[in-house]
């Protein structure tokens, strides 16, 4: 089976190409890409009519719900949301509900990965129960299919444990994803320390909590030779720290969650529980600094940090609500919002969603080039739509973007050359 | 221009934050509270203004005086008052607040009086149930009736709090009373000073229309009233001051320290009071200076005024 997509605006951040072009795909692999392709042997030709052809997105931070959760997000609904949102590869990260700290359960999880069209990856827990005390069986987790480790939302407070996990995981060439927060400074907080949170009387964490954690973790990575992944940088103070430590010989990378690029603390100004996030939403200055960092290439990957929560309306006032938002299906739409606003070029927005995360993990996809897997999306950048939390693929409804007007939709998604999503209407 | 010269109806069906009130609203509340204050001193305290309405006291935090004050206020107005001790109820069995709200709303009460450890819980319940809600304290956020009764108590002495210099001293950081008082006193045109160690002050508090001090003797100069706040140990993680002894030495109110204040200085305390920590016991009991019992008395009158104004709007289907 050989097919081609022609007459597209081909946007391939890996080769820094944004111009007319197309691809030829044979047996799930891209065999030709660019402005001049030979389509004579193709069985099927898709005319993109000037629409955007890009690599399918790679999302390094999503969460499932534990097995046997009634009415919850299943692997199938997560995959469906991803396909609709143009995400071809998604990482399941450990979190409190699904710590992914046991080789047995991780192996069982990985066995279900092939059934869903999209590509799943799994990160193992860095410490048992994510408690930050005892190292998890990282070697066995690697054998069972983990491609990196992380400690979920909880920073590893004990510097000695952090040092050892960094050192130990380096033998598997694993990134250690670490939430940049000083555990004590941030304990029990639900908001950024700011004028707004002080007036609201919310327990809040100072932005420098992130700076302190990055400086410590980077120093420990330097000492141990480990690979440190700053898991959701969210403040300008943290970005400053990242810039400083990058001048040293440290393997360090950083992700940013789409919420912190597109929302700020005042979105929760009405204490809407939908905007309860972890890390909390930050100031507009922080948000702008992060957008600048994406433009400057300082951010390796933007992640959805998709997190289905069990109560439709989160069920509790802001300070007590479960944090997190559905975001895998709205990831691209939110990023395109920045493009339409003129804050970000399309190619820069796509870089942190495709080849950026691919290069971190050495994945072959995330690029439109001969020899790469045919993980592709066709986007109409102009279609307007209103996000409706109830209409998303997830059975949960906790979406911070619900009600927002987006511009741009994924028309078709391909993974390994197989069409896994067609936009109707 | 007095209120009689134009038509303005009290527009609220909730009391969630002092920021929702304007000076005329406050004047209306004080006017009604004054009527109730006088009537409460007579043997004929009861009226039937709220007969037929049900007031639900939902206290998710233990409270004696505020809950008792609301209960007495509701009963004196003829309402059916039901107390739900939520601290020991279904929420500790894992029910979400929105489920609790739906359950309570099904009992068809009219007014919810809510105290909750989380900021925004009263507003959340107002939205979830569609019922009228009076905020009786939410986390570290607001305690509007306390601020109203504090200003009302002072206004009873002075006629008005506008232009007066008022100092709030103690644990401002964890205090919803301080936040509501700062908001209300600013609306009423008072000059507000705060005094606390830096560990007990909120971020950027100097932008709240107040003057900030760390030295009590400097802060007290020329003050017409002083509000002492207790340390909210239940909201503290770790230590914010080294000891109670040191706190009293630096921030405790005594007769001697008040000598630099206005000669007619008044002292308030929202209670419960820690004698010898934030206030000297002799000062707390000095009837010339201490308004602590006046505050308690005003509290019932202010809460009657609020319940009546809100109850009237519920009856008329008026207000937002």
Provide an overview of this structure.
Chain B: Heterododecamer (2C3:3R2) of six catalytic PyrB chains organized as two trimers (C3), and six regulatory PyrI chains organized as three dimers (R2). Chain B: Its EC number is 2.1.3.2. Chain B: It holds the Pfam family OTCace. Chain B: One of its GO terms (biological process) is 'de novo' pyrimidine nucleobase biosynthetic process. Chain B: It is an enzyme of class 2 (transferase). The complex is a heterodimer of chains A (425) and B (320). Chain A is an alpha/beta fold and 425 residues long. Chain A has one domain: Metal-dependent hydrolases (TIM Barrel, Alpha-Beta Barrel). Chain A has helices at residues 75-84, 103-111, 138-143, 159-170, 183-186, 195-200, 208-224, 236-246, 258-262, 284-295, 331-340, 346-351, 355-361; strands spanning 2-12, 17-26, 29-34, 44-47, 52-55, 57-62, 87-92, 119-125, 146-150, 175-178, 191-192, 204-205, 227-230, 251-257, 301-303, 376-386, 405-415, 418-422. In chain A, the strands form three sheets. In chain A, strands 1, 2, 3, 4, 5, 16, 17 and 18 form an eight-stranded mixed β-sheet that branches. Chain A has an eight-stranded parallel β-sheet with strand order 6-7-8-9-10-13-14-15, with helices on both faces. The longest helix of chain A has 17 residues, at 208-224. Chain A is globular, with a radius of gyration of 21 Å. The model of chain A has no long low-confidence stretch (mean pLDDT 95). Chain B is of the alpha/beta class. Chain B has two domains: 3-142 and 297-316, Aspartate/ornithine carbamoyltransferase (Rossmann fold, 3-Layer(aba) Sandwich), CATH 3.40.50.1370; 144-296, Rossmann fold (3-Layer(aba) Sandwich), CATH 3.40.50.1370. Chain B is globular. The chains are: A alpha/beta (425), B alpha/beta (320).
